[in-house]
Write a structure and sequence with these properties.
By secondary structure, this protein is an alpha/beta fold. 30% of the residues lie in helices and 17% in strands. Helix 5 (191-201) packs across helix 9. It is globular and about 70 Å long.
Length: 474
């Protein structure tokens, strides 16, 4: 009897056919969801630190109903669930759709977490699916397993290569899930926003998406690009700490947890805080054959929605590293920046919305100014650009990094507004505006943006232009 019921339910479950074989999903609350579909072969054994390759075909219908494992990562508390539920066999993606028929625009979500932690969570259950959008959420290799460079040629920006492989999967397969492979928007927040920016730059990702959304993350986070030699020196540190003489075969046999833990000990002398080690972009000569700013300047224009929070994060390395941080960020314009921030005087009282001077510097340098620079580069190329600043959090005096996420993908209201409507419109048309929404001006020559706060949405322009003019970092 029970076996018969199970068989009946399985027969009624939605089945989609991918290039590697059919997958069975679930239907709930109007969503059709598939979880843990492989887009690449497991990156284990000889494939550790190697470029992703297509998955082997499977026989029969593969179950795609259970949550998939996160990629290996250390435990930082906020990501404890992902840490507990991890596996090196993690190159999978989830799909959320309303029906397998049709051709709806596609949103490919790349999660944040510093490129060393996190997962896409349950993004494919977002209410944005109900707005006529197919959501694809991607897992990619993290930390030392995703971004370590070694002198024997193993490693590299393989985490980015994973994302490109996932986009190729979308191009080849998403039509079978009701998606339009020619109407793809890539989106991410924090490190995911950075990776979106790097995919805009990467020649291998050309033609795989049409639009991009970058939240609180840019190709370089305002940092100087890391050369391949600098990356290899970090690889030398890794080999010395692992104490295996740099032998690749031995390293591939070590536990993934050991590789991740060792990666968290690496030091980048350019950084004022090593928790940004996997956020400093390496120009590897392969995925990124040139510096990302040059690659972006050379590529065709695209539609871009980009923004930041009014306050993001504290100063990397703390107050004692302020001088070094400003010097690295502004270079030849350091004196101008110091004068703007009045760094040679006593710190002013904290701004009620922007925080302490250190917090203002950190948000300007790492988030706000690079985002405005990215917007300007794309707008000057003729791309349609829409910029925003988010400044609302119900349980504190200031907003914070990622505070906007429940409003964008969880359908949380901002007063009378549903910000998700803007995002859904952009995915569909390249323009976030809609008949029932306050007007959002295009970035244009004046650097227009939409200020989002407790009062709703209002147009503004020239976001922090008085200090951002002194840095051209992405």
């Amino acid at each position: 009897m029970i076996a018969g019921i199970v068989a009946l339910l399985a027969a009624a479950a939605p089945v989609a056919t991918t290039e590697a074989g059919p997958v069975r999903g679930t239907t709930a609350a109007g969503h059709v969801v598939f979880r843990g579909i492989p887009f690449a072969a497991p990156p284990v054994g000889e494939r550790r630190w190697a470029a992703p390759v297509a998955p082997s075909r499977w026989k029969g219908v593969r179950d795609a109903t259970a949550p998939a494992s996160s990629c290996p990562q250390a435990d930082y508390g906020w990501n404890h669930g992902d840490y507990v539920f991890q596996s090196e066999d993690c190159l999978t993606l989830d799909v959320g759709t309303t029906a397998l028929a049709g051709r709806r625009p596609v949103l490919v979500w790349i999660h944040g977490g510093g490129n060393y932690a996190g997962s896409p969570g349950d993004t494919v259950q977002s209410p944005i699916v109900g707005k006529g959008v197919v959501v694809v959420a991607v897992r990619y290799r993290l930390g030392a397993l995703g971004f370590l460079h070694r002198r024997d040629g193993t490693g590299g920006n393989v985490g980015l290569q994973d994302q490109i492989a996932a986009l190729r999967w979308v191009k080849a397969n998403v039509a079978r899930f009701g998606g339009d492979p020619d109407m793809v928007t890539i989106a991410g927040e924090s490190a995911g926003g950075q990776d979106v920016g790097l995919l805009i730059a990467a020649p291998a990702a050309r033609g795989l998406f049409r639009r991009a959304i970058m939240g609180s993350g840019t190709p370089g986070f305002g940092l100087p690009w890391r050369t391949r030699e600098e990356a290899l020196r970090m690889g030398d540190q890794f080999d010395a700490l692992m104490k295996v003489g740099g032998d690749a075969a031995t390293l591939r046999r070590t536990a993934s947890s050991a590789a991740i833990a060792t990666g968290e000990q690496l030091h980048d002398p350019v950084l004022t805080a090593d928790d940004y080690r996997w956020l400093r972009t390496t120009v590897d000569g392969a995925v990124l054959p040139e510096a990302p700013d040059r690659l972006i300047a050379a590529r065709p224009a695209l539609d871009l929605l980009i923004g930041t929070d009014r306050f993001e994060l504290d100063l990397p390395g703390g107050r004692t590293r302020r001088d070094a941080f400003v010097a690295t960020a502004f270079g030849a314009n350091e004196a101008r920046a110091r004068a703007f921030y009045r760094m040679d005087q006593a710190d002013p009282a904290p701004d009620p919305r922007m925080g302490t001077l250190d917090q203002q510097i950190a948000t300007d340098v790492t988030f706000r100014c690079p985002a405005q620079r990215m917007a300007r580069v794309i707008a000057d190329k003729g791309g349609k650009v829409w910029s925003y600043e988010f400044d609302e959090v119900p349980d504190g005096p200031m907003t914070h990094h990622a505070a906007e996420m429940p409003y964008l993908y969880g359908d949380k209201p901002l007063g009378a507004l549903r910000l998700m409507e803007y995002w859904a419109n952009f995915v569909k048309t390249g323009d976030p505006n809609g008949a029932t929404l306050p007007a959002w001006p295009a970035y244009g020559a004046q650097g227009a943006y939409l200020a989002l706060d407790a009062t709703g949405a209002r147009p503004a322009s020239g976001l922090r232009a008085d200090i951002c003019q002194w840095t051209n970092r992405l």
